[in-house]
Predict the 3D structure of the following.
Amino acid sequence: MIIQRVLEQSVGFLRSDHERGTVRDGTWSRLKQDRTGIIGLFIVTVFFLISLGVLLGFLGQGWSAADGGRWESASSNHWMGTNLLGQDIFQRAIFSTRTAFEIGVIVSLLSTLLGALLGALAGWYNGKPRKTWIDGGVLWLTGVLDSIPFYLFVAAVAYALQGWPWAMHVAMVATFWTATARLVRAEVMRIRSREFVLSARTIGLPAPLILFRHVLPNTLHILFVQATIAFVAAIKTEVILSFLGLGVQDSVSWGLMLAESTQEVLAGHFNNFLAASLMLFLLLLGFNLLADALQDAFDPRQAAL
Amino acid sequence: MRSIVQQLIHGLLLILGVTLISFLLMVWFGPDQTYTLIGKNATAAQIAEVRHQLGYDQPFVRRYVDYLTGLATLDLGASNSSGEQVTSILKRTLPISLALMLPGFIIGNLLGMALGLLAAFRRGTWSDRLITGLSVTGMSISFLIIIIALQVLLSTPYGLNLFPVRGWQVDSISSYLTYVTVPTLSLILVTLGYNTRFYRAIFVEESSREHIVTARAFGASPATLMWRHVLKNSLVPITTRFMFSIPLVVISGSLLIETYFGIPGIGKVSFDAITSGDQPVLKAVVGLTAVLFVLIQFVADFIYRAVDPRIA
């Protein structure tokens, strides 16, 4: 028993550290005990299933058919009434779940990956053995991107690439990665001086292998939390951009529905506004609760504070 | 001394980066204004003439360097769309944006600080849970939803109908108050969740430090601890957040609020400049924000040194 443990430990620090590092067994059991976290996970799962249903063609397929009258109230035909063009608001709100997930998943994945990559490189090539231009360059780029007013930058990118449906995604990824990069950089700098990295160096493993196999997996807890935060930020930004006319094109989203409703509410038609804001609020709440619970589960010491 | 030089170089590099990226985005890839200015049926000579006036025929480096020298000498040129001098546009719109955004910004931060302090002070009790829960809820509501809801509730016949729906005709204190209330309330509600969380985290971290624990062990009252030790030591991160949010709140925040309520401030002017390709205005706004940011970093650094001798 003891011999096995000693063996495991001595091999362990050459193995990728995440097996006994930060994303460890306790995380899931701690998450399960977090009641609000489970509520968040439940909400997100329900929305995910809805978006899957839309993607597979079961739900919300009638979102663009204008088969009702103008601004009808709720009825058995149109559960949330219709909009100016006679389109079914309930169907549009459901279909928008897919749009939201599409934007959220793409933006949060890409920005987290980019942030992890650049942050890891910057943290690894900082200081010992020598200070390099990689760290300086990444720091400079994050500083520059953070100094440009956010909506101005996003609007400029969206405008420069106008007509291209991914303009909005590019704009968000280009700004969202900086937060992740900063956190990962700091964490990599911390991990770099740990024993297992030292031993890996001593036996002559190449630096990229150590960095990407052994160091980066130890930042997974940061990446998970940052990805959920980026998801929330992406959906929120989509709403603003769609209102400004720089967002979703040739489809429907909660942002577009809200933009439509800005004129309608002044005339007393609230269905568009209510449907879109309720869905949007629930999904964001779910993700925020989940992000908090993840953070606490990964870092119980901080959570105890 | 050496660190001041380093700071200076760092600041200059930052300004260069911001101006370069925004120049690339907004000018090089931005909209071409030739044909909006010239109208239909122009001759080739007229087109060339307009392009020359707008500087489109110059090489990239030349245009970029011209931009930098213009920025350095504060010679910002005139708007392409209206012909008005950019400095006069800024002079006209900046006070409006400040008057519009500052009350909400300050009240939002103070309220967040008070709630954060209360939550940190009563950590783990039901009032802490209530405040944290409400701030997560607040963080989950989109800016646009808050604006629309407040507008319906406060300025339409479907609600209280107390304030004008949109616009900005300010000539007295009372008209200022009627136009500023709904935007200010929206701004407070949007930022309150984030502010409260941020301040609570800072206060909690400060109050779990060793010297606080020691002071508590020596019998200092909770109120003294909070006011004299925790709040005072939290001043550094608080001032940082405050200062770094100012340019972003004034430009980014005002962009949405001013576009929505039709208020002629700097946010609306810059957004219109993006969509119409009014490059002199854009270049001025982005360039000056970058300079402001660097200045703020200098001031922040100076304050750190004054507050905490270890940094110097």
